[in-house]
Structures are given as C-alpha cells and as structure tokens.
C-alpha cells in the first residue's frame, strides 16, 4: 500500500484480557412455550431494575406478581421505535432490558420486512432498494443492543413444525417443535447464548459462549439458570458500556477536551453504537452525540479565559 494511504494508524497489538461484560441472551420458542416467564426469572437474578418492551398486548404483566419490572407496550414495530426505547431505557438506568418479542420488529406490523416490502410495492426499485434503504436502521438497532449498558434478553417467536411421537404406552401424539426463529438467518451470532424452549418447561442450548450452557438441556429454567449466567458475565476485568457515558456526554459543562476523553472511553468499551438521547431528548448514538457536541463547541470558538489581575504598579 502506498505511503499516501488515508487509513487511520493501525492500533497496536496488546495482551488479551478476559473481560466481564453484561450478557446478551435470547430465548426462542412457539407461543405458550414460556419465553416471557423464563426471561423474567433469569432477569431477576441478573439485577434490577428491569425494563420490558412488550409487543404481546400487555401479556407480560400477568407475571408482575412474581418479578417486579417496568414495561412499555408497542402496537406497531418500527425498528427506530425500538432504538428510541433502548435510548430511554439506557438513560433510565435499567440494569436488565427484555425485548419481548424481538421478532415483532422484524416480521410484525411496521417491522423491517414490512418496510422493505413497502419500498417494493411503491415501485422504488424493488426489494434490493428496500434493503439498501432500511438495512442501516437494522444495523443501528443491532449495535444498540450490543452496546446497551446492562444485560439484554430478547425473545424470538419460532416457526414450528409438527412431529408424531409415541409415549411409553405406544400411543401416538402430535408435538410441535421449533424450526427457526422469526428473524434474520444469522441472528444467533448477536448473542452469547440462544435457548430453545421445548415441552414440559425445558430449554436447550446449542453452541454457546457460556461454557456451562453449551449443549445443555435444562429443566424448569429460572433462578438457577440466571445465577449461572451472571457468574459467567461477572468473571473477568470490567470493561463494558456504562450509563455514565451518556450522562457525561450530555453534561452542559462539557468541553472539547472532556468530550475527547469521552470518545476514548467509549471506543475502548465498544460503546459507540449505544442508543442515547441528545440534549433535546432525541434518540441518537453515543458516538454521534459526542461528535455533534464537539463540533458545536469548536464552532463557538475558544472558551473565554478568566481575566488576570492587573500587575501592581
């Protein structure tokens, strides 16, 4: 490559350090499989307060006597609305965030598939043009979930198939099994673990970044599962997105130098895509918030220096 390359300087290699970071967890399964209750029971062990984004017409509230949480109900599922909800939850200091269901923002009314199909129906270049227009929003939501300053649990509706099995007496019966979640095909790579909820209150984990869960089938998932996940998340040197990043970026007394320090912190903690609120309470990424405030302050010019006392005559 020529010496005139405009690429930023390559960061230096450094020793890898095991980090403690909030967990990113997904539970998939058909309706009635226990996605919501399992998420709440696990969340209760991860910390509090808990916020739940409800796309199921308030059904999560039936478990409020078992796990205390705050809820926000959606009836249309524009992904940008989810981004805004993530920003408000982050500013609100919720240590655990549940999105129930994440699938709604993909295949529900006003969700990603609706938006892409709408572009095609309007004759704006077909499906490819629709994806080109709306893919950045999907990426922004994915980044915001990854950078949320707390634990994240999402539920996924699963498309199902029916299999015929026999019981111990040789009697046949039909059983529904999960085929794949209603989300993009590679969704599992966004999470530390994905649990598939099955019959009789069980959850099966396939490949998982959490060694204690890989390949396991767990009966009656709940508090014990939550404690196992928390032990894994807390193991290591702390380096994760903090809610205080938003508070300090919004500080009315911030300076160009202090914002430059914030930028270094959020890059180190991989928090650039965190959903935040600007000074007008509009949703924005943390990186955009810091950058826009820095540009504004530089445009105002140097800060006035305090007057120096006159020298004695």
Explain what this protein looks like in three dimensions.
This protein is of the alpha/beta class. The chain is 35% helix and 22% strand. The protein contains 9 helices and 13 strands. The chain has helices at 35-46, 79-92, 104-107, 112-121, 126-146, 223-234, 243-249, 256-268, 286-300, and strands at residues 19-20, 24-29, 50-54, 70-73, 96-100, 151-166, 172-181, 193-198, 202-205, 217-219, 237-238, 275-277, 283-285. The strands form 3 sheets. Strands 2, 3, 4, 5, 6, 7, 8, 9 and 10 form a 9-stranded mixed sheet that branches. Strand 8 (193-198) and strand 9 form a beta hairpin. The model is unreliable at 1-5 (pLDDT under 50).
Concise summary:
The protein is of the alpha/beta class and 313 residues long. Helix content is 35%, strand content 22%.
Main sheet?
9 strands, mixed
Strand content: 15-25%
Shape summary = globular
Task: Specify the number of helices.
Answer: 9
Oligomer type: single chain
Uncertain spans, ≥5 residues at pLDDT below 50? 1-5
Briefly note the structural class of the backbone: alpha/beta
Count of DSSP E strands?
Answer: 13
Query: How far is the first residue's CA from the last residue's CA?
Result: 64 Å
- Helicity, as a percent range: 25-40%
Query: What is the chain-wise order of helices and strands?
Result: EEHEEHEHHHEEEEEHEHHEEH
Global Rg: 23 Å
Mean pLDDT: 85
